[in-house]
């Protein structure tokens, strides 16, 4: 959706930067939302928590419908469900037949493995068990990863759009992240050993 909005509302030379800013907004939402939901979970019953959470999601959906508009210059097209399904199928078929799509998808999937597995899957239980954090403290610690992504996304997209060799850039970024991740894991292991 952020790519669609960037392509619809902004010129082509600004699209990569706007996608990075949209990623910043998304990750900031995850960062702040995780902390807020952690506190809500502590003070509400699970039934009330899910009622409030679904009401908030409904508010977000209605806000998106009300404020995100389509490009007015586009020609009017068929809005029927059959036309939508045919168009979606043809686009999906085109995308899956492109070799570059699979390479890019594999690359992006590997880049998002760390935040998905660590922060979302076992980061909170890890901090609670290894460092005896409370649930709120563990959520904050695990969510800092999303805060880092939020801060780095605009800079990364700006550097990517201005780098003379994009293949080299896409190679160096994972190597730097691997080095930083090894440093963090080493520090965690040493700290745990000292405990």
Task: Give a description of the structure.
- There is one protein chain.
- This protein has 195 residues and is mainly alpha-helical.
- It contains 8 helices and no strands.
- The chain has helices spanning 2-9, 15-43, 46-67, 81-96, 99-111, 113-130, 135-162, 166-194.
- The longest helix has 29 residues, at 15-43.
- The protein starts with a helix and ends with a helix.
DSSP helical segment count = 8
| Uncertain segments | none
Q: What is the C-alpha radius of gyration, as a whole number of Å? A: 21 Å
Q: What structural class do the secondary elements suggest? A: mainly alpha
Taking the alpha carbons of the first and last residues, their distance comes to: 45 Å
- DSSP strand tally: 0
Mean pLDDT: 77
Question: What percentage of amino acids are in beta strands?
Answer: under 5%
Helix content: over 70%
Shape: globular
Largest sheet: none
* Order of SSEs: HHHHHHHH
Structure at a glance:
By secondary structure, this protein is mainly alpha-helical.
Produce the secondary structure layout.
Layout: H1 2-9, H2 15-43, H3 46-67, H4 81-96, H5 99-111, H6 113-130, H7 135-162, H8 166-194
Q: Which tags fit this structure?
A:
single chain, 195 residues, mainly alpha, 0% strand
